[in-house]
Design a protein that fits this description.
It is a single chain. The chain is about 50% helix and about 0% strand. It is mainly alpha-helical and about 90 residues long. The protein is globular, with a radius of gyration of 13 Å.
């Protein structure tokens, strides 16, 4: 029997784990939380994303679903690849 998967639990654990990653970006260029970027990137790659454009598209297409687990970004949601990885 396959164990049930709790999406909220998995996403919460991603957030908890990746909060420990040091954000190398300067404070003034942080449009998105690093944990949001990492989590969306991992989920997008699992869903067969092949690059940043696919990851951005995944994030935009899944925005409503993702927001059921956590609040996305302290400023704005994904709007451009330039802001996404403004290191």
């Amino acid at each position: 029997m396959t164990p049930s998967v709790d999406s909220k639990d998995i996403t919460s654990k991603f957030q908890e784990y990746f909060t420990q990653v040091k954000d190398p970006r300067t404070e003034r260029t942080r449009w998105h939380l690093l944990t949001d970027i990492i989590t969306i990137s991992i989920l997008a790659v699992i869903a067969d994303a092949q690059g940043w454009e696919d990851i951005e598209e995944y994030g935009i297409n899944k925005k409503e679903w993702l927001q059921t687990f956590w609040t996305l970004s302290k400023v704005q949601y994904l709007t451009s690849r330039v802001n996404l990885l403004n290191v």
